[in-house]
Amino acid sequence: MPLILKMLIEAGPLVAFFLANWFGGIFWATGIFMVASVLALAASWLLTRKLAITPLITAGFVAVFGALTLWLHDDTFIKVKVSLINALFGAILLGGLPFGQLFLKFVMGEAIRMDDDGWRKLTLRWGLFFFLLAILNEIVWRTQATNMWVNFKVFGLLPLTLLFALAQTPLMTRHMIEDQARES
User: Fold this and answer.
1) Does the reported pTM lie above 0.70?
2) Which letter, b or e, does each residue of 5-32 get, where b requires 16 or more Cβ atoms within 10 Å of its Cβ?
3) Are 78 and 58 in contact (CB under 8 A)?
């Protein structure tokens, strides 16, 4: 899938959430986010005939916590979803390490070929980073107005994640398997 299309599918629901919040408030944004997440999964399936595990889990969380938000008319649920999903990803990644499970390699191994030591280090870093995001989200949603939290979700968490991913490039380069390094 072309990179621009992949980014549109992945970021589309978040952009829709932000715009819907801007124009209609958090409850409209939550409903739009739920629909946009399903549409993004459908588009991904139609284009690739497979569903990546992370967007699938995320869409499940959006559906459950979005439904609770709308049904109970309480925006706490959609706010907590961000903390819970990041904590879950962190727990899965870090929880697998003592058992030799490199879940990040399972998710990204087709796109990136690294030795297991690199995958272990990268998994540890991402696991800790996900917990940091969960903590940051908890601080922001509990201390700021809803619109500020939405801005943080869109313009804070996403850039932080991209910067963190870019910061992992030296580690990944050092541990890249030689065949792939020569092809690049």
Assistant:
1) yes
2) eeeebeeebbebbbebbeeeebbbbbbb
3) no
